[in-house]
Amino acid sequence: MADSIKDPEVYEALVREGNSKSKAAAIANAAARDGRSKVGERGGEAGSYEDWTKEELYKRAQELDIDGRSGMTKDELIEALRD
């Protein structure tokens, strides 16, 4: 699969952020094809973390292996996810 990645730098960054390998590959290849600044323009609008439930925020924090997440408030989870 590594041979099919057109922008390995973007791919590795996305995987480190917790994205699946297939999603990271698709975004990295789109970035290589269209330019990095154009990739985000095509996507839908993601909801604000403030619109997420605490449980949803916690699950995302688990996916990203954020330390101390179990004792965090909703606002602290949002802050940690944004960092």
TrEMBL record:
Q: Where is this region: Disordered?
A: 30-49
Which part of the chain is the Rho termination factor-like N-terminal domain?
Answer: 55-81
A Gene Ontology annotation in the biological process aspect, one of them, is: DNA-templated transcription termination
**Coiled-coil regions listed:** none
| Comp. bias intervals (Basic and acidic residues) | 33-44
**Listed InterPro entries:** DUF7218, Rho-like_N, Rho_N_sf
What Pfam families does UniProt report for this protein, alphabetically?
DUF7218, Rho_N
Under SUPFAM superfamilies, the record lists: Rho N-terminal domain-like
Identification of the protein by name: Rho termination factor
